């Protein structure tokens, strides 16, 4: 493999070598010009003519032109015109001075420059050709000298042959070293590129990790922190990691102690800790540490800390358990549905023949509980139905709200306990009609369960703001506990034993399927009465005028 086949025009090493050889040519031309001109002017070398000084000046001009007006070319052909012209100029100038013996000087060492230039920057064939040309010139010069002095022709030929052989050896050695340097440079560049790519990948992985990562030095200074760690530690300040020490925050003291144990024991550590981020605000985290080996004798080891929010871990575990429970419950509910319907039908037939009050009362109790069980089974089976991808359409929210509230009020015999505020006209939302109705019915059932019997105990309001519509279901029940609020939309969670705990979960799932969001808050009544109560709000995309047909689907942030 030759250097021309390995190097490319962007190789810094090849360019640096080319520049060095071009500078050497300029330097040699300048020295020859000054030397011969000085000898001629001082009369120390009468054999020096003006044309010899002019030859040195022309060579210097050619060297300067090649240095400043050309760029290195890595030819695929062994005899590229650029290299041949450069090396050819050297051979012509040096051989002319050598044959003429200008100023009585020996110019044969100058032939090393074109040989090295061809060997290092050219191909192996060009290097050998240049060495052969130099050897031939030396042999011709020895033959001419032998014609003048026949007595020492043997010594002159031997000297020319040895010098030419040396140039051949220099050409081969320099060419092999240059090829090896080129291969090592390419390997180094590939390794550097791979290292940079790996560093970018590592940085991307660390930045996108949901687990917090802190890199801490032995002086407890923070060398790096990914976004997850900043979010966990409520690190919203503008300090860079290098300017913030782990010990500068009193609430982070458990992390300092864990890092100290890691450095002292020189072993990984792990524990659960409570960090005080603000007064009366604690973060419970699971912390694992790893110690990195030092890069060299001058560098210190670093402690890498992995932070995991225990709340998220518990939530994932709870979600997985609930998902497994939901799948099992759906399977059981499907098997219970048919026997339960048979029990209800048999009880209905039996109740037609009962006359004693006690038996009628027992039959009514059976009917009531079978209806309750049937409702629970239906809600459990609805979990599987809401998992299917929805096909959102534009529906008139006012008509849907009035129709659903009217049917629900008639079924529950709510009377004055339900107040439906007039919805805005001609406002469409992105929702399936049946799914929107189910969300509203579930919210009304939940409000009915906890509201008082006072007039307007439940208020339904619909509002529109810009491109969003707000559906509010308010009730005058007592405020929910903080512990209950955290689990409101989880499946099978209820604050009372007679509820399946699936109504709000189904509402959230249906809202998410249609790009909407649902939330709870303690708020005043929408009718302006000033009463405080519990309010569930559904936020969904809207449009001022109804648009028939399917609607584009996107998600509204919670």
UniProtKB/TrEMBL annotation:
Query: What does the record give as the reaction this protein catalyses?
Result: ATP + protein L-histidine = ADP + protein N-phospho-L-histidine
List, alphabetically, the SUPFAM superfamilies matched: ATPase domain of HSP90 chaperone/DNA topoisomerase II/histidine kinase (SSF55874), Homodimeric domain of signal transducing histidine kinase (SSF47384)
Which GO MF terms does the UniProt record name? ATP binding; phosphorelay response regulator activity; phosphorelay sensor kinase activity; protein kinase activator activity
Q: Which Gene3D superfamilies match?
A: 1.10.287.130, Histidine kinase-like ATPase, C-terminal domain
Give any Pfam family that matches.
Answer: HisKA
Q: Biological process GO annotation list?
A: osmosensory signaling via phosphorelay pathway
The entry's keywords: ATP-binding, Kinase, Membrane, Nucleotide-binding, Transferase, Transmembrane, Transmembrane helix, Two-component regulatory system
Q: Which residues form the Histidine kinase domain?
A: 331-544
Supply the InterPro entries for this chain.
BphY/WalK/GraS-like, HATPase_C_sf, HATPase_dom, His_kinase_dom, HisK_dim/P_dom, HisK_dim/P_sf
Q: What class of enzyme is it?
A: transferase
Organism from which the protein derives: Caenimonas sedimenti
- What EC number(s) is this enzyme filed under? 2.7.13.3
Name used for this protein in its record: histidine kinase
| Membrane-spanning residues | 20-44, 51-70, 82-100, 112-140, 160-182
Taxon lineage: Bacteria, Pseudomonadati, Pseudomonadota, Betaproteobacteria, Burkholderiales
């Amino acid at each position: 493999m030759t250097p021309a086949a390995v190097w490319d025009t962007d190789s810094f090493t090849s360019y640096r070598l080319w520049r060095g050889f071009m500078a050497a040519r300029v330097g040699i031309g300048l020295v020859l010009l000054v030397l011969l001109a000085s000898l001629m002017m001082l009369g120390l070398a009468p054999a020096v003519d003006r044309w010899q000084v002019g030859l040195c000046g022309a060579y210097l001009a050619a060297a300067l032109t090649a240095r400043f007006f050309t760029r290195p070319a890595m030819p695929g052909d062994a005899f590229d015109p650029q290299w041949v012209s450069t090396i050819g100029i050297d051979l012509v100038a040096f051989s002319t001075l050598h044959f003429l013996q200008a100023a009585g000087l020996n110019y044969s060492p100058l032939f090393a420059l074109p040989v090295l230039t061809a060997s290092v920057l050219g191909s192996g064939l060009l290097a050998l050709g240049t060495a052969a040309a130099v050897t031939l010139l030396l042999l011709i010069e020895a033959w001419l000298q032998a014609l003048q002095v026949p007595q020492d022709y043997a010594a002159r030929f031997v000297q020319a042959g040895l010098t030419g052989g040396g140039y051949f050896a220099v050409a081969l050695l320099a060419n092999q070293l240059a090829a090896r340097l080129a291969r090592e440079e390419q390997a180094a560049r590939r390794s550097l590129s791979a290292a940079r790519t790996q560093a970018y990948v590592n940085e991307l992985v660390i930045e996108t990790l949901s687990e917090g990562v802190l890199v801490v030095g032995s002086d407890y200074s923070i060398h790096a922190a990914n976004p997850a760690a900043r979010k966990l530690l409520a690190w919203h300040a503008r300090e860079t990691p290098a300017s913030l020490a782990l010990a500068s925050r009193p609430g982070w003291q458990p992390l300092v102690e864990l890092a100290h144990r890691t450095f002292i024991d020189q072993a990984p550590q792990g524990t659960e800790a409570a960090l005080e981020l603000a007064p009366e605000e604690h973060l419970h985290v699971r912390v694992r540490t790893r110690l990195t080996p030092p890069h060299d004798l001058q560098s210190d080891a670093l402690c890498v800390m992995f932070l995991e929010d225990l709340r998220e871990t518990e939530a994932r575990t709870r979600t997985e358990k609930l998902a497994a429970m939901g799948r099992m419950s759906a399977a059981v509910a499907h098997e219970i549905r048919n026997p339960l319907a048979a029990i209800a039908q048999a009880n209905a037939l039996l109740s037609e023949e009962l006359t004693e009050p006690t038996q009628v009362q027992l039959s009514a109790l059976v009917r009531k509980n079978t209806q309750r069980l049937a409702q629970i089974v239906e809600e459990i089976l609805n979990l599987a139905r809401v998992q299917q991808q929805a096909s959102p359409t534009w529906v008139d929210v006012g008509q849907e709200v009035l129709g659903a509230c009217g049917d629900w009020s008639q079924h529950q015999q709510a009377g004055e306990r339900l107040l439906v505020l007039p919805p805005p006209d001609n406002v469409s939302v992105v929702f399936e009609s049946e799914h929107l109705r189910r969300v509203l019915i579930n919210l009304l059932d939940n409000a009915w369960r906890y509201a008082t019997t006072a007039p307007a105990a439940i208020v339904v309001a619909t509002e529109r703001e810009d491109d969003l519509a707000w559906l509010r279901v308010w009730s005058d029940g007592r405020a929910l506990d903080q512990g209950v609020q955290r689990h409101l939309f989880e499946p099978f969670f209820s604050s009372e034993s007679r509820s399946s705990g699936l109504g709000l979960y189904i509402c959230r799932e249906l809202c998410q399927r249609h790009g909407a969001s649902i939330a709870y808050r303690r708020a005043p009544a929408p009718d302006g009465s000033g009463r405080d109560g519990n309010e569930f709000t559904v936020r969904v995309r809207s449009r001022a005028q109804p648009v028939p047909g399917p609607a584009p689907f996107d998600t509204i942030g919670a």
